[in-house]
Fold:
Amino acid sequence: MGEEEKNRPLKLGDLYIDIGAGNSDEVDALGIRVGDPVVPAVKTEKLGPSGALMGKAFDDRVGCAVIAAILKRLDRDHPNQVIGAGTVQEENGLKGARTVAAVVRPDLCLVLEGAPADDFPGAGAIIQGKLGGGPQIRFFDPTLIANQALVQLVIATAREMGIPYQLAVRESGGTDGREIQQSAAGVPTIVIGIPVRYAHSHHSIISLNDLEATVKLVLGLINLLDETKVNDLKKNPW
Structure:
């Protein structure tokens, strides 16, 4: 690519995938149709002895993995009704989040996000999310200011449980939390991120230690939150 091409947004017509076909009949013979989705063929594998895992789409497969682990380990006598949801089209208008909020009508929302890590060369001088540093508790991004009482509760819980954590104020990006926080009369919402290196690229990297720490933290929160605490938070959802 030339310098001019590098500095302008790509258009759909700029992109193509060469499958070796010479005409439309050969494309049809391969079973490929207009509108078919295309995904990178990436093999998930462990990297080194530190618990790192490489794969694709950890934003937000890692969030889905945390939800699945939480639902499997949840005590039967916890004081809440817990609903885990994997939404669609966060990057295209938060459509799934809007639907989930309308169906579930949550009293409180913990958004489990594959948050971009910034602990590699060229990412910037300030590191807010590093692999192995634990779950990232987000105060702010351009789409959501987290419920401050909920932020402090998450931090206090992490400290009490001895779980490492990281704090983040993000200048870009956003999550389903924007739509859920603004639903109904307002929902206390916070984003808890698992750092992902090279998010949105073909090969991203996470730490399994961060994943496990996030599962433990959220389980601790679920067991701590009860009707009284949730109602107190709902008095000021913003």
Remarks:
- Strands lie at 45-47, 52-55, 109-116, 136-141, 144-145, 166-169, 189-196, 204-207.
- The chain has a mean pLDDT of 92.
- The radius of gyration is 20 Å.
